[in-house]
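Researcher: Please generate the 3D structure of the following complex. Treat every line as part of one assembly.
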Amino acid sequence: MPEVAIRRGAAPALAVEGLTYSYPRAAAPALLDVSLEVAPGEFALLAGRSASGKSTLLRAACGLVPHFHGGEVDGRVTVAGLDAIAAGPGELAAAVGYLAQDPETQVVSTTVAAEIELPLEMRGDGPGDRARAVEEVALALAIPHLLGRAVDTLSGGELQRVALAAALVTRPRLVLLDEPTSQLDPVSGDELIWLLRRLNEEWGVAVVLAEHRLERCLAAADRVVAVEAGRVGFDGVPGDFLAWTREADPTLTTPAARLFSRAGIEPLPVGVREARQILGERAGGGPGAATAVPHPGKGTSGEVAPPSRLSFRRIRGEDPKALEAKGLWVELDDGSGPRDVLRGIDLAVAPGERVALMGRNGAGKSTLLRTAVGLVAAAAGRVAAERMALLTQNPGDFLVRERVGDELPDDSGLDALRAVGLDGAIDADPRDLSGGERQRLALAITLAGRLDGDGIPGLVALDEPTRGMDRGRKDDLVALIDRLATRGAAVVVATHDVEFAAEFAARVVLLGDGVVIADGPSADILSGGWYFATEVARVLDLPGVVTPEHGAIHLGAAASEFPGVYDPASSEARRGGA
Amino acid sequence: MRSPFAYIPRRGPLQAARPGAAVAYLGSLVVVAFLYSNPVVLLAAGGAACLAGRLAGARTAVRAALRMGLGLALLIVVVNALVVDRGETVLARLGHLPLLGQVDVTLEAIVAGVSIGLRAAVTMVAFGVYSACVDPDRVLRALRPVAARSALTATLVSRLVPVAAADAGRLRDAAQLRGPGAAAVGRGPLARRLLAGSLDRAVDVAATLELRGYSLSGSRGARRREPSRHDGRFYAVAAAVLAAAITGKALGADDFHTYPTIHIGLGPATLAVCAVVLASGLAPWRRGGRRA
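Model: Done. Output below.
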């Protein structure tokens, strides 16, 4: 961890004292007697399950709660010396920047330059100051090439950076971010986190970041605040947080910490670098010893077996296929002219297969699924899918009625509800269901009438289903996918979430700029690179080892081979010799 | 999918000009369209708007506006032919139709419809070019000091339109993706869902505006007068077009009537106005840059 200028003792960037808040007409408070302080220059991570109160706490810190949302508030929130409850978001705008999940609703101007300049103009800054501030923040965030662009031509990652630039341009003392990486691919997500760290170090901005994918950002944080049912459950350094999660809430822990826990290794690591250092020291390399960096594109030795609990079998020509694309080309126009989004895709998926479709934002994952289901026309080639149900990124788009039974009125609807385990909720109002249940209901809506006589769907496709999900809900989704695939349905999931892919998929298809750049067992693909690799794979750098459970077995094996240690050097040597 | 009328930042003179200059220029063509009925002058105004759009790089917007404008013009021609029975050149006797009564289609009614339709088409093309070439942020910035609430509303609407369009596209997709056993979704429930979603979106966008400090009134003195060397050109062309149009009108350049028979004046005054109006379409032309 680099040295950071956290100015403890100085007036805090954020001080929350005894904050209790209830949204209008809410049955229970969203925040209950929350107290915490964030020092200037500190990087604090807010952890917690979905609906635990993280977002509400961020909204209170920027004045949206209670000014914008109403409700009842008690306690005190101070931001850079300003009383946030009395002042409101407008007056706090110069002291605090806020970035929410959905970048689409966070831009209010037509062009990037105008969007970044707006807060300065509102503050009354002169033209010269504005021009300089816009230029500097654009350089800091590596977006000067976007300044002349219209905001509706930007990708999700670009839009997120522009929104961040608008939040930072006033040089606020505090930046609040609510799951800013939830819509980003691993590459963009990592870039954003390290960009925040750099700004935190170089500009001295205090950062409060709420995230579910803690493995992405725990190593960058100085401190973790865990929120549980509206209360602060833990407040301390990342290493202690991991120890706390073991007893208090194991769903909040990271894959590397799970790996170490299972292998009985202490202390639990906050990131890949620390994990490799600990393993290196245990191997006798002394303090600071780290293993070699992973090398992308490495071959598998076949020495590490079995790869995972999920079996992979390559499809042969005569096998039945739930999805088949041959020489598929798709052209789309996003406003900047027509572009080949898919370029000669060949792909076959067999019934019962679990496939993760991965790749950067804009690689063509969603387009492939949309073309297979018939929403988008192919420019050349062909694609065929058997009884395909596609659940798009926003399950709420499927819910238009006020009773589950009204969405699915006949027997085929009941069969679909049974297939997703929601047949007991037929009289419920979809709005009263939990996030996971709403997702399953939306899936049932797409499945209704597409099940065969035994209630088995042909192909179930999910597009980014884990956005904003905590690990508990992801585990439920993995169980559902297991159930569908075990019964014979092919399941294809477009996802950025490598840890989720390692949990559910037997096969990973990696797309890059509209072509398939890798296709194979998930254990191989997810252990073969820097970005599209799980945290465990990056720690151990062993071919085919991607999950904590599997990694712990290998650490155990290494421990018995080399008493008490895992020896990365030996691992390298063995792979080299294989 | 972006709207063909969405603003695209470019380096052309029309885009660089201040909103007032661009509005004066394109507005002068609309004034001509409303001042004149002579189809030749209207065609010249339409040609000038198309030429201006092409030179400004807004080809897609011009094409889309032409499609819509000519479609609207055709509708006007048909309706006018059916509801107006004046004129001596009867082309068809359609007999007695419900609601319309006795319907005789006359050449004069069709030409009168063409004149009105052209006026609508010119307006649409000029608006299309404005929409694609004039930065709405600059328009709103100019509007903010004089009408803060209107500017806020316009900002919200201008952001919500593309967001709502994207939401509508997603809801349509979701409706298509429903299984055959799920209850079908008609337009009514879809519209209700879109409206409910739009309200949530409006709250999100309004929250963002609030966080950007929109409720603070930045000092007027801080407003930037964004320099443009093209403003003078557009103001001058607009003035020339208006002067020619008004003078021409006074000199009988709008010599056109359709009843009882058709007469389209093509005198020197009309041709002179046409020439000035058409030439005004060259205003966004940009000479090639000089090499250093």
